[in-house]
Amino acid sequence: MAQEVCGVIAPGKNEPVRVETIVVPDPGPGEAVVKIQACGVCHTDLHYKQGGISDDFPFLLGHEAAGIVESVGEGVTDVAPGDFVILNWRAVCGNCRACLRGRPQYCFNTHNAKQKMTLASTGQELSPALGIGAFADKTLVAAGQCTKVDPTVSPAVAGLLGCGVMAGIGAAINTGNVGRGDTVAVIGCGGVGDAAIAGARLAGAARIIAVDIDDRKLEKALTMGATHTVNSKTSDAVEAIRELTGGFGADVVIEAVGRPETYKQAFYGRDLAGTVVLVGVPTPEMKLELPLLDVFGRGGSLKSSWYGDCLPSRDFPMLIDLHQQGRLDLGAFVTETVQLDEVEKAFERMHGGDVLRSVVVL
User: Whole-angstrom Cα distance, residue 338 to residue 358?
Assistant: First the structure.
């Protein structure tokens, strides 16, 4: 039987979000209903609210979540009611050319639940953020979006792997292939950037340079594993990175902002054969101009990181284990916990740079 629960809706472009009653249908074939325990407030949710992702309003926001599987539909065998799961937004198909070549992290046919959740008051269909919609007591997802992990971990920290923290760690380890002794620069020290710093530290980087325009964020970056900081508001970021790397530039530069000007800093701040990883999310109107000769004149690689190039079934349990061993402090990313009706205020604090992550606890 369909259920009515509370959820946070973005009704229109740049309109304040509000808590509404939504209808969650019973899971159909290949689907699962998950009782949400915690969900991080990610910048991507703010992008949805601002119309920067699409105009398919109203959106059911929230996607960085963990919770308990309540029920599953026909044919679901990988998860069962009672399982503690982290939700992911790239449920792989297993049949596309990437999956069949053993590269499921690049699946070209990722999927979400086929049924739609709706507004109880009008019956209007909702667009769940990244196919999840977890600022809600319960949500409907494809069963492949559920990844089982150690149930003893706190939901407030586990859910962060569902997006920002995984994106940052994966940008360093999976996409950037950071190795022992490497020099790494991270431009943009929000949640994703700090996760990239933590990932570079896990990988054994010798020098990790944090770049931002906010001294508060740079101080936090030092606690996450950065060895040096650069305030690019008062210093030339490229020159500072070169000075800290013997004049060469960094082996890997991770751009966690998603703007043309910071991408150029990353491009010119890398070593001659270094790697640039773009993990910051641009908006549709942004354009990048670079002299083609400068692209030709450097080796290395220019990469984009899709969700940290992660494979949730592999990476989520591994990172939870590292957290449980005390080798990855996921709790350091949680600045505050809030309730569903405080999401709008959490957006304001995030936009002001006052938090690393607010987490909605249900």
Answer: 7
Q: For the residues 188-217, what does the mean pLDDT come to?
A: 97
* Beta strands 127-128 and 59-60, pairing class: parallel
What is the average per-residue pLDDT within 302-317? 95
The answer to whether residues 245 and 237 touch, using CB atoms and an 8 Å cutoff, is no
Q: Are residues 158 and 28 in the same domain?
A: yes
213, part of any domain: yes
Containing 44, the helix (H) or strand (E) segment is helix 43-49
Please spell the DSSP secondary structure of 130-195, one letter per residue.
Answer: GGT--SBSEEEEEGGGEEE--TTS-HHHHGGGGTHHHHHHHIIIIIS---TT-EEEEE--SHHHHH
- Whole-structure pTM value: 0.94
172 secondary structure, DSSP code: I
Domain that holds residue 53: 3-162+329-361
Q: How far is CA 210 from CA 37, 184, 217, 258, 356, in A?
A: 32, 9, 9, 16, 15
Hey, what amino acid is at 259? R
